[in-house]
What does this fold into?
Amino acid sequence: MWWKNSVFYEIYLASFYDSNDDGIGDIQGVIDKIPYLNTLGITGIWLTPFYPSPKVDNGYDVSDYCDVASEYGTIKDLKELLDKAHQSGIKVIADLVINHTSTEHTWFKDISKKEWYIWRQLPNNWESFFGGSAWEFDERFKEYYYHSFSKEQADLNWANPKVKCAIWEVIDFWIDLGIDGFRLDVINNLSTSNEFFDNPINEEGQQVHLYDVNQQGITEVIKELKKHIFEKGRELFTVGEISSSSLEIIESYSDSMLLDVTFNFNFGSLEEFSVEKIFCELLAMKKVYDDGRRPTFFFNSHDMSRSWNRLASENLERYRQLAVLTLINAGVSFLFQGEELGIGDYLPGEVSDIRDIQAINKYNETKDIVAANEVNRDRSRGMIPWESLTKQVPAIYAVHPPQVSIRSKLLKQQGEMVRYGATCFARRSANANGLRNFVAPLSVCLAAKATRAKGKAPSRSGNSPTSLGGGISSTKLCFRSTNPVGEKGAPTDEVITSKSDAWIGQGKKNKKSKEIFDFYKQLIQLKKDYLNGESTFDKISCSGEVLQYKMGNLIVLLNFGVESYYFPIAEEKIVLKYNYENFQLLGGGIVIGKEKDV
It folds into this structure.
């Protein structure tokens, strides 16, 4: 099966790549980056929800299952993406949210479809996963409807056969378009029972989600879904998000008759780095998946803080070791956009900048932005600063007052993205108003806002483009047909670029991102060369700071001891001690090779 040896790349559309400079990522942006993903070695793309939505929960509140949100593009655009991805050998799976719909969906608004949802005259004690009661009063029926997440996300009644038929039609629609599979959101939350026992309360006074998840009947629904997909005649992939920390519960949803794989949040949910914890989790995975089923491996997603901050603590060597665990394993690997560049967290400095409903609810409860940011899923959802990572716009730091003024406005809005450098360029020919403006195109939308916030367009300082700093050559230009500050009739903008390659630019962070990208690319190739879909863990051991695991005759050794970062000779001693041949020293205490025959 094609997915068994795949490396998937999660794309959070709104912040991946903005192709039309409206400040929002889009499908055309993904199309533009297919060559980039192909170079990296990606074989599968996971698209987060692209459907029309009020965006209460960033697209996981779907108002129309069979269309594309206008801010992302059109169905025609999506078809083009599928065709071009397939031409590059890349499969595409879609995020499908079938536990609930938006209350703006026509199904919920249609009185005749009331029984497609879950209603009670009096609520029980079930709590929403976003906090508060999971029941909301509806004036139309004078009853309460159930929402396991926000009140704008009404849960579907999967005990109703009409709901199944409607969702099967949705699945058929996207398969016929060319989608290669589905990531099924919170699939173990489906409501299949008409029993509503109160959930128990633990000793800490917290509710235990016992009766509102993993209900009897969910596996039967999944079997029907899998059978329906199988009958389409294509080799399609299904991966489920299971809201549980128990590996036993998670793996119980994967089987030849159920889901192909399920997400293992045992690594992704780690709050801090621990060799012992990673070792224990690997042992648990080996035990649970010893029957040939495939685990999934990831340290990053749109629901958690990025591992660059959370686990690696911005230590490059530790980050590389986490990359090895993510990619060189006996499972299906998932990367999150920007992970291969070492991108870190984005933390909004203003409450008005928070988009995550979980963080908004936390702020409303505590009135503390620090507390809100601790649970803020926006941290990993910041815009990828492609311009400061590629040759189109090198990382040039502003030095003249007008530039500094613009840059300060941007930094306030961009938060920690300052690490990649705001960039500036000069318009070499005057615009319709006779001005030559400095503009910072990290985000054209934000650049326009920053310029307007100043009250007037900044004047030109310096005598030549080289006055921007860094001795940037003005002989090599990259043209962009944009109008950052909104003047009518403005000429094409000329972006000054460096003569360096497509990654280095002028900033130290660009060089770091290039190194990380190359390392991920190398690991993905090693995964393809060494492993196949049938590889399993044969041996896992840990001695102090040294973690070792084996798959077939391939051995991976990670020395997490700090001294290994600075003394490469220690790695050669490790090779001798552990009886390697055909080994590769990848730096930072990383050794990958084959075990000698003894």
Q: What stands out?
A: Residues 41 and 525 are 7 Å apart (CA to CA). The chain is about 30% helix and 15% strand. The chain has a mean pLDDT of 78.
